[in-house]
Amino acid sequence: MKIQYLEIVTNNVDSVCASYAKAIGAQFSAGEERLGNARLAKLDDGALVGVRAPLSSDEGPVVRPYWLVDDIEAAVKEVVEAGGEIAHPPLEIPGFGTFAIYLQGGNNHGLWQL
Questions:
Q1: Which intervals of the chain form a coiled coil (predicted)?
Q2: pTM higher than 0.85, yes or no?
């Protein structure tokens, strides 16, 4: 399994980006509107780290890994069969792929199809 996108929602985007830049040498872009204005860093294996502020007053800080899958519809079905709750159904983001978010075990998780 591979994490395609690691989403970090924080109230202090600049601080988090600075610490990742220092710790692992990640170089973050300006905000990407299609990903909630997340600042992006591309890792050597092609995965992305996105750091963004909450999109609404009821969204709290979270770190959400998005697992790379070949077939997001099949993966969503398997998640539901395993007891997961779909928080956001599959949605395509042009130029990035299709994502879905699910809740399980008290944690946020994501799926990503290129």
A1: none
A2: yes
